Structure formats: C-alpha cells, structure tokens
Protein 1
Amino acid sequence: MHAAASKFDAYWMPFTANRDFKKNPRLITGAKGHYYTAADGSRIYDTFSGLWTSGVGHCHPKIVEAVQQQVASLDYCMAFQMGHEKAFALAERVVGLAPDGFSNCFFTNSGSESVDTALKIALAYHRARGEGNRTRLIGREKGYHGVNFGGMSVGGIVPNRKVFSANLIPGVDHLRHTLDLEHNAFSRKQPEWGAHLADDLERLAQLHDGSNIAAVIVEPVAGSAGIIPPPVGYLEKLREICDRHGILLIFDEVITAFGRVGKAFGAERFGVIPDIITTAKGLTNGVVPMGAVLVQKHIHDAIVQGPEHMIELFHGYTYSGHPVAAAAGLAVMDVYDDEGIFEQATALEPIFEDILHSFADHEKVIDVRNFGLMGMIDLAPREGAPGARGLEAHKKCFWDEHLIVRNGMDGLQLSPFLNSDVDEMQKSFEAIRRVIDSVD
Ligand SMILES: Cc1ncc(COP(=O)(O)O)c(C=O)c1O
C-alpha cells in the first residue's frame, strides 16, 4: 500500500498548482450567503460567486430544503427509457426562460458535457436533413468550452490545448479573438472596435465552402480567458453570416445564462438569437452538478423522427436529469423569480462597473473590462514571470484580506453575487486595492 506523506497527497486538484497549494492549503469548511468559512474559522467574502456558479449566494434555505427532501424521497432514477416528473418540469421551466423558438432541453452534468452534447446535436441535425457533409466546426481563439475533446478542440486557450494538440478533433477552425488593448483597453461594456473580426467566419465559409460547415460556437462574453465582451455589432454579424451559409450558431452560455448579464440568457441581452444554447453553473446555483443544452424546435424535430420504437439520438449520461439536481434546479428557478434576482443583477451592473473602472488609473493596471456582473482587472505582468503577480494577489486576498478573488494569469476576475450587498461589494474592492498596491 502507498503511504501518503500528507493527507493532501491523494487528491489531484483540477486547474490548480497542486504542489504550491499543498504547501499551505487554502481550505474552506462552510458557506452561508455571501461568505465562506475558512479552516481557521475566519469569514471569507466570495467575490466570485463560487466559480461563476452560486449567483444567489451559498446554502440558500429554499434550495437546501428542496435537495434534502429530494434525496430522502427519490435519490436516483434510471435515466434511459425511464423518467421522473422533476426533470420534465425543470426542462419546461428552463425552455420557458429561453428566447422564442426554443423548445427542448437536453440535460448533462457540466458545462464541458453541454458543449460536447451541443456539437453532437449540430452534427446529428445536419445529417438528419441529408447534409451529412456539414462536419466542420468553428470556434474562436481564447474561447473556453470546457475540457472534453470536442470543447477543447473548438476552444482557443493555448495551455489547455498544447499537450493534446495531435489528438484534437479534426476539421476545426478558429475565428480570431476580439481582445486588442491597443483599440479596446478600458472600454465599458462592449467595445466599439472589432465587429469586422466576425468576417473571419465569412472567410472560412469561402475557404471551405459554407456548405461544409456545421456550426460555430462562441461565448457571447468570453469568460475564462478574462471577460472579453463582444464588440458592438459583432454577434449580429456572426448571426448574419451563419444565416447566409446555413451554419448553426451555438452560444456557450455556461457563464452568461441565468442572470449573470442581467437577463435569463445573454442571447436575450444582446438581442441575437442562436440555434443552440449551452448552460450549467447557474442552472442549479452550483449546488448539484448539472448542465443543459437548449435547442430550437426545428433542430429537435429534425432529429427526433423515424420509427417510434427507436432511440432517436444515441447520446446521454447516466446522470442526465438526475432527480436531486432537478429538484435543486426547480428551487433555483423559484428563487430567481420570487426574489427578482435578474432585476437585482441589472440594478447592480452600473455600480459594479463604476467601482471596477475606478482601478483604471492604477499604475499596475493595464486594462479593465466588464459586462453584466462579469469584470476583470488586468495587472501588468511582472518582468520575466507572467502570472506570478496575479497568483500572489489571489493568495494575499485570501490570507490578508479574507477574500476569494480569482486570478487568471495576471488578471483578477470578478463575478459578484447577483444579489450582492453594495456595501460589502465596495469593501471587497477596497481590500483588492490594498492588495494591488502591495504586491510587487
Ligand atoms: C463558457 C464555458 N463553457 C464550458 C465550461 C466548462 O464547464 P465545466 O467546468 O462545468 O465542465 C465553462 C467553465 O467555466 C465555461 O465557462
């Protein structure tokens, strides 16, 4: 038997500097509302709503109660050829929030699974209509679509792709990303410059012939690469080019759905309607893992046909529509409605934007970006050590200021609660300023 040197050895942590973390673990023992409790008993303010997940706060009593009741009454139900009421009810509820034309919801367990499901649905749709030649998929540089092979292939974050380069799925191209500090630094919400970058899709359609392209997938606001709102007119242009060539438009709304940009979906906020929407995170407020793919009726109907006794789409997960996740999701939808959560997020957006942009003149700050309740303070990298300043700031926030602030390289990302208290939010930014002042 392997003897572990420390109790932290065995768990190989995701997207974490494991060895550095385990030297001095940042451990959480509890959560309530807008705060975590750390192992030493201190209260830690969460500036990231979990991991973009927990917009209404942690351990919301209505969600806790729904989960407790569900796990005690129906803990699991076979997902294939069997069903339970709550999965149907949640699907109906979520479809009801989606833009007109959306009719169906396929449940997954994560954002990564939602993305791979969406890509497969796009391919199945074209094939069902006799256009099986449409196999090419288009993503975008700096896009994050999870870590499974499909999502990684259409994604555009280099370190996530580098090691697996030779095994990425074939037939994928990328649009250029829209982050250009020379033109766009310190824009509030959508930058004015950059809509022309959507013409990359037209170029690819000319190169491959549009009739060979199945789908293009983008995050309406790129999240993980550091909050990159779409330039004014960019998403509209993508939609127009897709329509011209019969290409499906997929919005990856794993972050932007469920109030993060003040509406149920980014599609609604931008007024650009995709054919497929992927979600996860806010679907259950992060309480139980669950994702969902929403599709327009014509996509569902093209695939769901043929002999009635046959499975129409050979795809699904053991935990698709899991009863405990579905119960959590239904309670979350109630909280969104009853507490006017999306309206609260809308009201907070200008306050958040003003506080965030007050960092614009700091000597260590090279850009500030925001959209909805998504924000980024980009610090200048330290000479010869990109990422070091950001990680140090993250650790200082935790140990010195009792704050969780996410860093992506040297960028500090903010994802405040959709029902944040303005005073608490303001105080958290005062602490962030002290940290930025004091890091080397
Ligand atoms: C836009 C987007 N897509 C997909 C994912 C992957 O989600 P998960 O980590 O649940 O697999 C994420 C995660 O942050 C995301 O932001």
Protein 2
Amino acid sequence: MSNNKIGIVGAGTMGTGIAQTAASAGFEVFLFDPYPEQLLIAESSLQKVMNRLSEKGKIDSSEADSVITRIHFTDHIKDFKKCGFVIEAIIEDLNTKKDQFARIEAMVPSHCILATNTSSLSIASISSALKKPERFLGVHFFNPAAVMKLVEVIPGLLTHPDTVRSARALIHSWGKTTVLAKDTPGFIVNRVARPFYGEALRILDEGIADVITIDRAMKETGGFRMGPFELMDLIGNDINYTVTETIFREFYYDPRYRPSFTQKRLVEAGRLGRKSGAGFYTYDAKAATDAPVEPAGKETLIFNRILCMLINEAADALFMNIASADDIDLAMTLGVNYPKGLLQWADELGPSRILKQLEQLQSEYGEDRYRPSPLLRKMAELNSTFF
Ligand SMILES: NC(=O)c1ccc[n+]([C@@H]2O[C@H](COP(=O)([O-])OP(=O)(O)OC[C@H]3O[C@@H](n4cnc5c(N)ncnc54)[C@H](O)[C@@H]3O)[C@@H](O)[C@H]2O)c1
C-alpha cells in the first residue's frame, strides 16, 4: 500500500460499513455509488452511527466528526485515481461486478490493489474482467462490517502473493482479523455453517422436534447465542435459502447441502423472518415469549446430531485444504460467534465419537448426506486430534 486513500464501490449495507471501518482507522475514503439517493442514505446512516457512538462515549465527538469528514461520498469513479486499494461491494451480480472492475482498473494507478466483497461469486470469474488479475483478490467482510472482526481473504487463481500480503496487512491495520480461504463456494464460514441450518431443518421436516425445541437445544445444550430458526429469521429466509441453494448447486448437488422445502415455502409465502414480521416465528409482541410445545428431553440428541454434522463439514473443509485448522476455527468463532471452534470441539469430544455418530446416521438413512469426511475417519483410526 503506497498511500492511505481507499476507494469503495457501492454505498449499500456493506460498502457503508467498510467505509466506516477504514475511516475510523484514519484512512481517507472515497465511497462511490452511481445512485445519488443511495449516497444520501449512506451519509445519513453513518452520521447516525457516529452520533450514537459518541453519545455512548465510545468515541469522542470530534473524532466522530473526523471519521465522517474522512469519507467523500461520490458518484464519480475518477476520484479513485489516487487510491492504493479499492474494495467493491455492489449488488451480487457477476456481469455488473465485471463491468465495474473493468472501468475501475482503467482509472486507478498501476500499484492499486482491487478487491471484491462478494459472498458467493468465484474470485476467478470476476478476475477475468481484469487486465492485471494478479492485483485482485476477495476480501469477505461480515455484517455489520464495522463491528464484526473477521475478514476472509481469498486469493484467486492468478492473484500474486504480494497482493495477499499487502491486503492482509492493510486490513489488520483496521483492527480486523483475517483468515485465508481457497476460492471455493461459501469460502469458509458460509460453507461450514450450512449444517447449522440444514440439519435443523431436516430434524424439523422429519417431525423429530419443533422449531422452539431445536433452537433451545442449540442455545441451552450447545451454548450457541441464537438457535438456527431464530438466526434464519434474522438473516432473512430469502437470503439464507438463496445461499444454501447456491452452495448446493455450486457443489454439483452434493446432498450435504440440499435445501429444505419448508424454508422454500416460507420464502414463497413472503414469511421472510423479522423483516417481514413473520418467518419461523411471528414477531408480534408475544412471539419471543412463546412457550415451548415439546416436553424437554430431546435436546441432547438434537444438539449432538447438528454438532456432528458441523464438525464433519469443518473436518472436510480442512481435508480439502480450504483453510488451515486454526483459520477454520477462528472463522467460525469470529464470523458467526460460535461458542467454540468446531475442530477444537471435535478434539474435546474425540474424533471417533463424532465418526460413530455419523456412521449411525448414514446407516439409519442410507444417505450420502451423512458420509463421514475421510479425514475424520483417518483421525479416529489413528486416535489423533486436530490440534
Ligand atoms: N449484506 C451482507 O450481509 C453481506 C455480507 C458479506 C458480503 N456481502 C456482499 O457484499 C456485496 C454488497 O452487499 P450489500 O448487502 O451491501 O448490498 P446492498 O444492496 O445493501 O448495496 C449494494 C449497493 O450497490 C449499489 N450498486 C448497484 N449497482 C451498482 C453499480 N453498477 N455500480 C456501483 N454500485 C452499484 C447500490 O446502489 C447499493 O448501494 C454483495 O456482493 C454481497 O454478496 C453482503
């Protein structure tokens, strides 16, 4: 990085959060969006956030003002001509992103690093729009970007190692933690977290337990902050369903990631979750205090089943060299607030116990969905651990 000027493309949820992060670390930010009304929304929402932080005493009021002053809200990419780093956070559409990058590359200096915040597109596919793909990579922030500590860094097929080094150093200087992930669907977090939703939905679909009981199992027995159904309602069932469907398709229809009709029907009916007033739960005044309808007792079984599927997914990500064991555990604790790293959890329980449970599920259902990762099998055989 040869200067402290950052370009951000797209002043939506993520672009605005990333702008706040960089400006709070003292960088001068050019936040670009082609829609002037979107720039006004971004500016007013950032102003509110900074006011709130200063009212709560988390930042003094002059610093809050400086953060806003360091951000230039612009509808011209010509402002990027002095930037050393540009992050794109526009709508999730491959051709729109490729168009933008071709335009940006023609504007920025030759040393400028270009990055995308895409959640689901491959870094390789976006890089095909660039003349110099060696200076391009993925930097996947989590929402809200100013709060969440994790950033997944994803080199593409043609990214130069110096690009990765410089991007990580810069993001660390913004107070974030980075993990390195291979350019595969879902990177680390969106892939490894799939069973948290998918297996919970499967348990519901089989009629083993209701939504409240499954959520209670994961929170009270597992120590997760939110249950899978509460979380799907918070994320939005439309978004969560689309992520699952994309990952299922991108992994060539691997049954491990198969979406659920129950969630699809909710989306079709407009029950998107909190944002539409109803999803798995209803969000009128009494919804949060609904009494459980199932008697207690199934929680351990439910928790063990979802956890062993999560651990299997984490072990398989390691087996397929998606990331290191350290980075997989860090990603799940910082990116989705899991109470513990999944591989550390596997070590505590013992890989052979997890393997046994998966083998039982696989034999009961006869489905490839429950096939144990070869790495888990090997570790159980050798009686070894991940760390
Ligand atoms: N929202 C999340 O939780 C989240 C988390 C991680 C990554 N992402 C990724 O970040 C990106 C942005 O997501 P978001 O939730 O901030 O979306 P958003 O809809 O809030 O914002 C998108 C912004 O892009 C702008 N835009 C549209 N077309 C444009 C164009 N041609 N050129 C420049 N700007 C354009 C829009 O005006 C809007 O301001 C996506 O790639 C998404 O997959 C989102």
